[in-house]
Amino acid sequence: MVRVTPTHRRAVLRTGAKIAAGGALAAGCGTGHAARPSVSAAPMPSSAHPPAGPRAYPGRPAQITHGPRNRPQVALTFHGQGDPALARALLDTAEQRGARLTVLAVGTWLDQHPDLARRILDGGHDLGNHTQRHIGVNTLPEAEARREITDCAARLKRLTGSIGTWFRPSRAPAASPLVARLARAAGYPHVLSYDVDSLDYTRPGAAAVTREVLAGVRNGSVVSLHFGYPDTVAALPDVLTELGRRGLRAVTTTELLS
């Protein structure tokens, strides 16, 4: 049984104090959240090299829930929203442990924190599209659902030179047929789902997040996690330690499927 150490608890309490001063946490995909007004995103520096865009994986379904089951790799995927200090803490922890993540960013979050797009890519992580406003995209009329996808893609393109490597629908584990079609039209051959849900957005405590991930993870798993929650920051070191003990590497989704 893994556990959250006192050191981890002290770290998350320090981070929580920053959040109290800066505003409430963003909600996860399982709860409602009113997006803050967007601001103009800074364009990609001319010296930056655009990352690779989406690619098709022949033989893979339109909606991908996991990678190959015969290789000891997993993808830790994060819904990108919430306090930027928590995002940086998660990225730092992953990089210190040699892990690489997949971040599906919300467009309004990129508007508010445009530097994080380049920070994610510079750390060797995947960066993708999690809609513009993080609302229930599957429930929207076609024109509005299209805008949710293309507006976020435009932010990513402006900030990085690419529309991102993956698309994941907001407020749902899988895309409706309409949203999957709109994503393909926007340039995303696959929708990225997952087979392990950490339930971290329910704020169950770091130990519960750790148990939930480790109870379901196996070769090829794609795990759903979130930026914006101290429990997730506190859980990540123990999750990575136990994955290593089991011989599992945390890689980007692109590497998982390559």
From TrEMBL:
Keyword list, A-Z: Signal
- UniProt xrefs under InterPro entries: Glyco_hydro/deAcase_b/a-brl, NODB_dom, Polysacc_deacetylase_ArnD, TAT_signal
Every copy of the NodB homology domain together lies at 72-251
**Signal: is it a keyword of this entry?**
yes
Cite the PROSITE patterns for this sequence: NODB (PS51677), PROKAR_LIPOPROTEIN (PS51257), TAT (PS51318)
A Pfam family that this protein carries is Polysacc_deac_1
Signal peptide span: 1-26
Q: Which SUPFAM superfamilies match?
A: Glycoside hydrolase/deacetylase
Question: Which ranges form a coiled coil?
Answer: none
Going by the entry's taxonomy, the superkingdom of the source organism is recorded as Bacteria
- Family matches, as CDD domains: CE4_NodB_like_6s_7s
> Which segments carry the region annotation Disordered?
30-69
Listed Low complexity bias regions: 30-62
Protein name per its UniProtKB record = Polysaccharide deacetylase
The organism encoding this protein is: Streptomyces canarius
